[in-house]
């Protein structure tokens, strides 16, 4: 698919494996872009599954992200998955939580720096043992314009180190 749509990728088309998004600023441009895509599909003998197609929409889900005229945004489902995850009690649960956070990485400034406590805790936890004494908590606040994540690291009940992350929309 990438080879077929190479001249259009980054301009009017985005492709991932067998998923295609045609993006345009105006209705007229969209019709022209769709004509180009259909021409290439016919040229290479490819067919679309009508039940998986949506035309002329202003927003939708693509690869788990919300895509709209504002750009690419995190899906509320991804945020919900992180928010509903209980604090990890062992290495496996910590790895699961970290995997969910990685999916949000593009929306969090200095993501790898901010997730360092998670990765260090995974390393300290050993094969299947409990996570170290310090507990890691994650709070996500989602607004229309940004995702903010706050990590609390509590080595002692009375002291807390606070680190804040925030990023606006990633624009296409």
Secondary-structure blueprint of this entry?
Elements: E1 13-16, E2 19-22, H1 27-43, E3 59-62, E4 65-68, E5 71-73, H2 76-83, H3 91-103, H4 111-114, H5 116-124, E6 135-142, E7 146-156, E8 159-168
Antiparallel strand pairs: 1-2, 3-4, 4-5, 6-7, 7-8
Helix pairs in contact: 3-5
What report would you give on this structure?
With 172 residues, the protein is an alpha+beta fold. It has five helices and eight strands; from the N terminus they run ββαβββααααβββ. The chain has two domains: 13-57, no CATH class; 74-168, no CATH class. Helix 3 packs antiparallel against helix 5 (116-124). The model is unreliable at 135-172 (pLDDT under 50). This is Retrovirus-related Pol polyprotein from transposon 17.6. It comes from Vitis vinifera (Grape).
* Shape type: elongated
Report how far the terminal alpha carbons are from each other. 20 Å
The total tally of domains equals 2
The largest sheet, given as strand count, sense and whether it forms a barrel, is: 3 strands, antiparallel
Helix content: 25-40%
**Range of strand content:** 25-35%
Output the helix-strand order: EEHEEEHHHHEEE
Number of strands: 8
Radius of gyration: 21 Å
Pfam families: RVT_1 (PF00078)
Domain Reverse transcriptase: 1-67
Protein name: Retrovirus-related Pol polyprotein from transposon 17.6
